[in-house]
Amino acid sequence: MSEADRRNSIAEAIIDAPRSIVNLVSHQPAWEPSSELAAKIIEILDPMVQSIDDLDRRRVVSLRLENKTDSEVADQLGCSWSTVQ
To answer: Cβ–Cβ contacts within 10 Å for residue 33, how many?
Structure first.
C-alpha cells in the first residue's frame, strides 16, 4: 500500500468515526461525558483530525464531531448532501 493510499484510508476512517460514535451513543440512554473525559477525547481526536490533508474533509469531520447531520454539514460547507456522504 502506498503512503497516499494509507493516508486516504486513515482519512476515511476518521471521517466515518464520528458518525459511528453518534450512532452508538444515540441508541443509549442520555449520557453526558465528564469534562475530564471530554478533554481526553478531544486530546486524542484533535491530532487525528489535524492530520487530514484535505481541508474540506477536515471540516466535514470537525462538523460531524459537533454532532451535525450530513444535511447541516452540507449547508455549512455550501455543497450538496451527497458530496458530504
So the answer is: 11
The sign of the dihedral angle between the CA atoms of 73, 45, 47, 66 is positive
Q: Where are the beta strands (DSSP E) in 1-85?
A: none
- 25/22 Cα distance (integer angstroms): 5
Q: 34-74: per-residue pLDDT in tens?
A: 788 878 888 888 888 888 888 888 888 888 878 888 899 89
On the question of pLDDT at 22 being above 80, the answer is no
10 and 51 Cβ atoms separated by less than 8 Å:
yes
- Hey, where are the domains in the chain? 3-84
Q: Is the pLDDT score of 20 beyond 70?
A: no
Task: Please report where in the chains the cell 464531531 appears, as a residue.
Answer: 65
For CA atoms 14, 72, 83, 57, give the dihedral sign. negative
